[in-house]
Amino acid sequence: NRNARYEYDFGDSWIHTIKFEKIIQATVGEKYPKCIDGQMACPPEDCGGIGGYYDLLSVLSDPKNEEYNEMIEWLGGEFDPEKFDPKDVSFDDPKERFEQMNEG
Fold first, then answer.
1. Helix, strand, or coil (residue 55)
2. How many Å separate Cα 98 from the centre of its chain?
3. Which residues sit opposite 7 in a β-bridge?
4. Measuring CA to CA, how many Å separate 55 from each of 20, 21, 26, 51?
5. How far apart are CA 52 and CA 74, in angstroms?
6. What is the pTM of this model?
7. What is the mean pLDDT of residues 67-82?
8. What's the burial of 43, exposed, middle or buried (CB within 10 Å: 0-12/13-18/19+)?
9. pLDDT tens, position by position, 21-55
10. Which of 25, 36, 80, 89 has the fewest CB within 10 Å, making it most exposed?
11. How far is CA 6 from the centre of its chain?
């Protein structure tokens, strides 16, 4: 199996599939791991799981919706669910995370 399943936020059950495609030659001076591609924006933190996210998208699709301005304010500005930039993805240092896990 060349996929990994990752669940973020157990309360809201955001489940991600991480697909391993190939090993590439490391570039000197580059930090790893790194994200090289993806799709769509990350749902806003604490938006209420999948159901809450769909509700949010519904409100944002209609600027005349009575909740539209409230949602824009809650988001802190505009939100484009289609936008994705791999440069915005950050990772914790895997060596540090492994050491923390082994400490207990």
1. helix
2. 21
3. 15
4. 32, 33, 42, 6
5. 13
6. 0.69
7. 95
8. buried
9. 888 888 999 888 888 888 999 899 889 889 999 99
10. 25
11. 11
Dist. CA 17–CA 38, nearest whole Å: 11
> Both tokens of residue 16?
């991600």
* CATH number assigned to the domain with residue range 31-103, chosen from the 4 options 3.30.750.24, 3.40.50.300, 2.60.120.680, 3.10.290.30: 3.10.290.30
Angle at which helices 49-60 and 68-75 cross, to 10°: 120
Residues 6 or more apart whose Cβ sits within 8 Å of residue 89? 34, 35, 38
**Residue bearing tokens 């391993």:** 20
